[in-house]
Amino acid sequence: MLKIVKWVFIVALALLVGGVLHYNLPRHDIVRIIGTENRRVTPGWNSMFYSNAEPGSAAGQVRDVFFINTALPNGRERVFRNEDTGWGWPPYFKFSAYDIQAQVANLASTAEAPRWVAVRHYGWRNQFLTIFPNAVKVWEVPGPDTRIIPWFNIIFLTVSVALVWAIAARVIRWRHRRLQPALDRLDQRIDARRAGISRWFKGK
């Protein structure tokens, strides 16, 4: 039973960490800009998936949010929001939402004369939750087959795995050197007490 609880905890923790990383780490899409728009949004129970309100605006208050309408090379549409992250989480320190909106408006194109753009973003698109990935940076690329290597993700995940491995190795060594001998001594004392109590009852 304890093994089942242990593995359930490990799997739940892995899913939680994986979900947090998948949401917050940057990803890239090659798209064609269809158009831009500005919507009045009042974040409610899904507010955790939106950036903080701009300075001077109250949290939860109706505010303008930029959106970028795009099309993937396969023709499917994809919508991004364009909000500043400021000094909040995730730590992209983005303060250029207005500049990006002007940039993508200038990069808009038609299917007959496409201009392909790389969009660096984080977050998820979910229709039920009404949430959109947030565009962090956009730039023009030569074509729809342009490959972008996620160097940041590679370095970040490599360093994170190395740190977790180093900490786990030290914990295991500490357990074998200090904790396990202490537990063994405790077991020996408990066994000795039990043997003493058993002999006392037999003497009775």
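Second entry:
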Amino acid sequence: MSRTATLSSAVPFAAVLAYLTGIVVTDLVTPSYLRLDVYAALAPVTAAAVCTYRQTVFVGIADFLLMAAHHGVLGDDSSAVNRVGAVLGNLLIVGAAVVVARLRRDGEALLERVRATGEAAQRALLRPLPLRTSGVVVDGFYVSSQHEALVGGDIYEVVDTPYGTRVLLGDVRGKGLGTLGAGAAVLSAFREAAYHRPDLAGGVVATEEGLYRYHRSAEYQARTHDAHAAEEFVTALVLGTEEEAGAVALVFVDCGHPAPYLIRADGTVRELEPAEQGLPLGLGELLPGRRPGRRIPLPPGGRVLACTDGVTEARAPGGRRELYPLAERLAGWAALPTAELLARLRADLARHTGGRLQDDVAVLVLERAPVAVSG
């Protein structure tokens, strides 16, 4: 147990013991007809709710011994039947408190195991940032709108391939843990396509095919309970790098996703409009052909910030409910290092929403990896 946890459990334990001691002492110095000792039974009950199992057992034993001594050894003017009844009643309350504390301890242990298992599974789905390839560093942050969940409806991945770095940022329709199936299908297909499709547009097609396979799977049909249920779609931004003669270009394909921003070394910020506002993954069958990509030079020191609509559509609480002014904020923070920019953005977003996110949030910043200097 950590020092903080030990301290947090010691404070209520000390308070319960102080209460028990105070009740016993007060009962001894006051007239017998007041019968304040009945309130001592609150000590083990309270301990069961706020103390550890061992502390509850200690409080229960102390309470029972004090009450047994008070009604047996010390005695009072009441009849033997009343005294035995008081001791037995106290024993029942102590026993019940210990049972409750045991159930609470077992429940917390089970919850901790489930949380650890869920965290491992979610970390396998989305790797911790930052992620580095041979030429690019991608940093960022992820905040799920679902309490105590590490991931939700937003997904991301960074893959180092023979054709350059491939980056995916997506948002499954809906939010929370119910979207993990479609998200996992898209991520798996993207990872595979990134290695086998040299062109970015072809990789997008292969990624979408993975989502279609998931829609046809028994898992999806069982979850929706309807073979004709509306299929999930995923808005996504797929980015890739191309290097030629020392110059790096950024290629990106839009699939119904918010546009990325180019942050130049001189502090200027520009929104990168896609070649065409594409449809989300899962709706590509409605298109006459592949989604087109846009290619732009990545200037030295330049960075590309991409985010999900959990940022761009975040609203302030209250009557006005203004949208989060991302472009305005980035213009003021453009000169900051990436780590500080992300910290500012995360804190400011929480401040803007009053700590109540309406949707999952994912932010990625892509920049060229520093060149190692050989000694």
